[in-house]
Hints:
Blueprint lengths: L4 E2 L2 E9 L3 E8 L4 E8 L9 H13 L9 E7 L2 E7 L6 H8 L4 H20 L12 E4 L3 E4 L4 H6 L19 H4 L6 H17 L9 H10 L15 H8 L11 H11 L4 H9 L8 E2 L2 E2 L7 E4 L2 E5 L4 E5 L2 E4 L5 H11 L26 H10 L3 E2 L2 H9 L51 E8 L3 E5 L15 E4 L8 E2 L2 E3 L3
Parallel strand pairs: 16-19
Antiparallel strand pairs: 1-2, 2-3, 3-4, 4-6, 5-6, 7-8, 9-10, 11-14, 12-13, 14-20, 15-20, 16-17, 17-18
Amino acid sequence: xxxxxxxxxxxxxxxxxxxxxxxxxxxxxxxxxxxxxxxxxxxxxxxxxxxxxxxxxxxxxxxxxxxxxxxxxxxxxxxxxxxxxxxxxxxxxxxxxxxxxxxxxxxxxxxxxxxxxxxxxxxxxxxxxxxxxxxxxxxxxxxxxxxxxxxxxxxxxxxxxxxxxxxxxxxxxxxxxxxxxxxxxxxxxxxxxxxxxxxxxxxxxxxxxxxxxxxxxxxxxxxxxxxxxxxxxxxxxxxxxxxxxxxxxxxxxxxxxxxxxxxxxxxxxxxxxxxxxxxxxxxxxxxxxxxxxxxxxxxxxxxxxxxxxxxxxxxxxxxxxxxxxxxxxxxxxxxxxxxxxxxxxxxxxxxxxxxxxxxxxxxxxxxxxxxxxxxxxxxxxxxxxxxxxxxxxxxxxxxxxxxxxxxxxxxxxxxxxxxxxxxxxxxxxxxxxxxxxxxxxxxxxxxxxxxxxxxxxxxxxxxxxxxxxxxxxxxxxxxxxxxxxxxxxxxxxxxxxxxx
Length: 500
């Protein structure tokens, strides 16, 4: 429908529509240019706190500046309707390209995936997830190449209904990973999964996960992908292994970032691709095999890499940037601390008989250690205590989740809290259900963890909560402060290291 206006925008014609918006070609009369104007369904604005969330998510998307992301010009409201004005990309969507010409050759697929991956990796570094990666949201510009649109809006719309029904799941069914169907909060590997779905569709010309209804599509995702026995001519042999890892049912079994997935695809097509793909595939479960700088350093055993970029910090979710760093996957255990005591001659915790940990707790986090003890261990190990910012990014990832595992309240399913266990538990007992997005365990519950953060002139900050705390006190933003010399049965630590 043309011939009407929304604020300063004169509608030229409709160019597409989805479940919650219609996209028009419109003319911005104030600047004399045509734009793509996404007009949201007015019913959405009546859902709870939608207005505040709309502006927050839209502002985050508008802050993204990347050659393969469709720029957002304006976010506004006119005639009681919300709209988003974006660059008008004069080219087909990937969905239209697939519909008109079918499967896409390997070299072109690799080029498009590389451009989309670069856009997503940049956005993740800025703390923005896409949550609806699909061919319809990938536009093909004749000059710029692939351009990604609609960052974050599927997640926004999905949260307008808290009933956990299938209809409230944000995203497009064919590209939604199992954990999102289960009600867990999206993470960067949500976009890895969706991009792999798109890559398979490009190579075969067929949607990977389909069914007669939403429930059937969800079941298909739960059962796992049915990849081709024979890929089209020109597709490298190792692609199947790469896809199986990217489409793993458990988030921690996937490539930890879209750039890792894209690199694995590229290597699958290289001279040593098949062997390299097999090597990467057999590394499933190692969450962070590669840092951005290259292979895992020899000193990084038992650590995970947290990629550089911005994340939502603190209760106020302030966007904060950090360089990349390595962090211990788990709190330092009694067994690890015993080695330090033996080699460095450091005093043992007061509850260790004969200077050795009691039987049966070698894999529990060490406790009754002061901040000074923790610093001494870190120096001996060639590491350091984390800053509050480093600790929190490792705990919550980039999306501002309240708990390492997502937004479900603490319970014995995810962590040790509320005095259920009456003491510490072995590190990693609640893995993978309680893992953080980067693969750390016990970031909430089990023990409070010393950091370098200060509170006043004489106290140090601890993060996360412990076995001794009620569930309401255990979270990614939980913090307390103690004098650095105190020692409690609910206090431990873990270390970080900056790769030089």
